């Protein structure tokens, strides 16, 4: 997996574009026309987005929409209910680097909003969450079709050619890098610019809440581990890995490199030793309407 330098990220960022109308009509008209037939509501479980999903054309199940998961996931309980067959093994890594293995199966079909796909790979893994949650739908499900998370309306919307043009017309566009580690796993990286001017590559992860940065950035951002306004959290995750996290508010802006108008100040940041520069999660993303357009390798941000 090749990492991009900051210079390469800045070159990518310069390719963003912002048209203003679609077919001579205001962009919002085209978007609203399709929402009722191509959308699904979501609800919150803590900061996680829970969407209705149909597996094998059955009744709705509750799945988490997690852009950082890589793979689609079903729980062992759901696997038993639908009679799935184990066909292989997936191997992934947590953000702190430890390896995670899980058996895999092929689902007959998966349906989210208006998108239905057949023969969908899924890992079988105990999520350790609310027992009413049956799995995770990841970016691998949407690798061929753009979709939008409208946080204000609490909807997931699958885009078509017209509505996607409308999103571009009224939004701010940023290129992304798609990483397919071990197929069909898919995650994406976005370029963010910190208050110091440094541009970093962060994984876009709706499964995380705070902005998470590698603890090597603490000194650069003026965060001292022993400062009274810094909270230290030590613990052990479900794999047995011992971690130390430092939580602080950084006053300076964090910007999308290709669209600096998409920014926030006074963000709560979790610093931890991880294998990435960082992960951008719910606390940042929820301030915008966010479109994931993997076919065109871009994200589109719009202010509510």
TrEMBL record:
- Note the Pfam families from the entry: Asp_protease_2
What protein name applies here?
Answer: Retropepsin-like domain-containing protein
At the top level of its lineage, which domain of life is listed?
Bacteria
- Check the record and name the InterPro entries matching this protein: Peptidase_aspartic_dom_sf, Retropepsin-like_bacterial
Highest classification ranks of the organism: Bacteria, Pseudomonadati, Myxococcota, Myxococcia, Myxococcales
């Amino acid at each position: 997996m090749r990492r991009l330098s900051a210079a390469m990220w800045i070159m990518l960022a310069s390719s963003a574009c912002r048209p203003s109308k679609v077919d001579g009509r205001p962009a919002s008209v085209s978007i609203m026309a399709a929402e009722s037939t191509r959308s699904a509501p979501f609800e919150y479980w803590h900061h996680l987005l829970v969407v209705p999903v149909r597996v094998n054309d059955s009744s709705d199940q509750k799945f988490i929409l997690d852009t950082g998961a890589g793979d689609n996931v079903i729980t062992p309980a759901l696997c038993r209910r639908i009679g799935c067959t184990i066909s292989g093994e997936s191997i992934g890594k947590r953000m702190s680097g430890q390896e995670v293995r899980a058996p895999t199966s092929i689902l007959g079909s998966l349906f989210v909003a208006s998108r239905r796909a057949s023969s969908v790979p899924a890992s079988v893994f105990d999520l350790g969450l609310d027992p009413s949650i049956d799995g995770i739908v990841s970016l691998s499900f949407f690798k061929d079709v753009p979709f939008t998370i409208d946080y204000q309306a609490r909807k997931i919307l699958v885009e078509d050619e017209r509505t996607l043009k409308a999103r571009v017309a009224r939004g701010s566009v940023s290129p992304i890098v798609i990483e397919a580690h071990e197929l069909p796993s898919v995650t994406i990286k976005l370029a963010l610019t910190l208050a110091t001017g440094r541009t970093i590559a962060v994984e876009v992860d709706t499964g995380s809440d705070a902005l998470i940065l590698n603890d090597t950035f603490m000194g650069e951002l003026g965060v001292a581990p022993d400062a009274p306004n810094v909270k230290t959290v030590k613990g052990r995750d479900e794999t047995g890995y011992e971690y130390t996290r430092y939580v602080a508010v950084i006053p300076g802006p964090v910007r999308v490199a290709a669209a600096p108008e998409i920014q926030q100040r006074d963000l709560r940041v979790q610093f931890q030793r991880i294998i990435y520069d960082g992960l951008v999660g719910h606390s940042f993303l929820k301030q915008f309407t966010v479109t994931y357009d993997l076919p065109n390798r871009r994200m589109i941000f719009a202010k509510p």
